[in-house]
Design a protein that fits this description.
This protein has 97 residues and is an all-alpha fold. It contains five helices and no strands.
């Protein structure tokens, strides 16, 4: 295999690429890491589709209007975070909304 040939499909490599797609899209990776991801995307339809989907999802989220979080919910979240920080893994009052 030459350096320009597509690599064999390796699911472990895809998982490694997937783990950095968000950083790649946010331009938080160095140039070498970006080139590695771009080479992978050239030859991997599945990862290219995941990257495109993630990029579209991020774009849609950025386009959404901002809404203030109700103060009661903010207070519950702060309390839950403090409990977790203190090692208390029982968070009460959680509602599936």
């Amino acid at each position: 295999m030459t350096p320009t040939d597509p690599p064999e499909h390796d699911p472990a490599h895809c998982r490694q690429m997937f783990a950095h797609l968000s950083e790649y899209l946010d331009r938080e990776l160095d140039e070498a890491a970006c080139r590695q991801i771009e080479r992978h995307l050239e030859h991997c339809d599945a990862c290219r589709a995941c990257c495109a989907t993630l990029a579209r999802t991020v774009a849609l989220c950025r386009e959404m209007p901002a809404h203030a979080v109700p103060e009661a919910m903010s207070a519950r979240l702060r309390e839950a975070i403090e409990k977790l920080r203190s090692g208390d893994r029982t968070v009460s009052g959680a509602r599936p909304d």
